[in-house]
Amino acid sequence: MASAVQRILVKVIFYISIAIWGCRGILMMLSTIIKFSKVLFVKKNRSQLPSCATDPSLGTHDSLTLNFRGETSACSVRSLKIKYVANGKSGLPLMLCIHGFPECWYSWRHQLKEFSSKYRVVAIDLPGYGDSDKPADKDFYSVTSLVDTIAQIIIELGYESATIVSHDWGGALAWNFAVNHADKCEQVIVMNAPNAVGFQKGFTFKQYCMSWYMFFFQLPWLPEFMMSCCDFQFMNDCFRGAWGVTDKSRLTDEDVEVYKYSLSSWEARNSAINYYRRNNMLSRDHFRGKKFKLECPVLLIWGTEDQALSLELAAKSANASDLITLEYVEGASHWVQQDNPEEVNRLMWEFLNSSSSYGRLDVEPSFGALSPDYGLSPEGPEPDLSPEIEL
Asked: Fewer CB atoms near the end CB (10 Å): N or C, the chain?
């Protein structure tokens, strides 16, 4: 009886939140329309990748096709093309880079160059983004389905396991991948994305307000329209506005054009928003009933000026397991690997050298200084958060 009442209460809160924050999203959209009314329906032709994304030093553009068997696929998708960019010699250990919202493979441009001497670095367009296929079936975007897709990508690339590097939505998938496919993880690096334990323990009222967009995205078609109106002003605001990088020289207008290209079609925007619609607070398949138990080391990198995810989420996430190392990047925004790539790369090398099953990679990091802990670095697991936590 108590659990039934709790489920009803969660649903009521969920739908009331959609109504409240949906109104905020609509007001923000109207404000943008008024401010940029002259270009309301203007859309630049984005049929070709901007030249900065075709730089050969980033790697080779390619794609692979996954075929799903009926008994293992929970939705109607039977085949899926995944676009990727790869740098580094075939046969080197695989580093698989998974981006977040509203990005694409290009968010890993600095890491594609930096780590190609010791890794086969592969940065994918997640399903629904860029030149990857865009399944219309919303069930395909469940965490369970997406995590299984990542496992198949590794196999299709000719590997049994990989070092997973991730950010934002890619990070959410990486945490789940580490739990459900531990045999395919060498190491995991997550940037500005909490695990399920951290999100649950750190979801304060402040974070609830910061997460307003997650509720707005539950509305039909309006989020897709908002993203594209006034020639994708939403993307300008995300990357170079109040939510954007703190150092604007790190993410230029031309860089933003790559992300606009990635989500230029209605199908792409619908797919990107479906990640939120399919995996909301009413979903129960995030960990498939498993305990949160890590078997490989995880580095959690967190930009301290994130406007969407609080510092408390980082600390609570790190406390979920003794295998998690938390490092803050002072002054960096949510787009941490683009805002301060030198520091991020230094932290990555340090972690990879200390925890690699391949042995030391003989690369000495030479960037920057360690960031302060802001008083939130974990001082050991909290009493109520053991390494195994039933969700």
From this structure: N
Superfamily holding 1-365: Alpha/Beta hydrolase fold, catalytic domain (3.40.50.1820)
Question: How many H helices and E strands in the chain?
Answer: 13, 8
pLDDT per residue over 235-275, tens digit each? 999 999 989 999 999 999 999 999 999 999 999 999 999 99
Distances in Å between the alpha carbon of 175 and those of 185, 192, 377? 11, 12, 19
Q: What is the pLDDT of residues 180-212, one digit of tens each?
A: 999 999 999 999 999 999 999 999 999 999 999
Task: Tell me how crowded residue 376 is: count the other CB atoms within 10 A of its CB.
Answer: 19
The model scores a pTM over 0.85: yes
* Residue 215 and residue 306 in contact, taking contact as beta carbons nearer than 8 Å: no
Q: What angle do CA 379, 380, 383 make, to 5 degrees?
A: 120
Name the 3-class secondary structure at 191.
strand
Domain ranges of the chain: 1-365
Rounded to an integer, what distance in angstroms lies between the CA atom of residue 314 and that of residue 316? 6
83 strand-pairing partners: 63
Angle formed at CA 372 by CA 119 and CA 305, multiple of 5 degrees:
80
Residue 252 corresponds to which amino acid?
A: T
> Which positions are annotated as active-site residues?
168, 276, 334
Task: Summarize the chain as % helix, strand, coil (round to 5).
Answer: 45, 15, 40
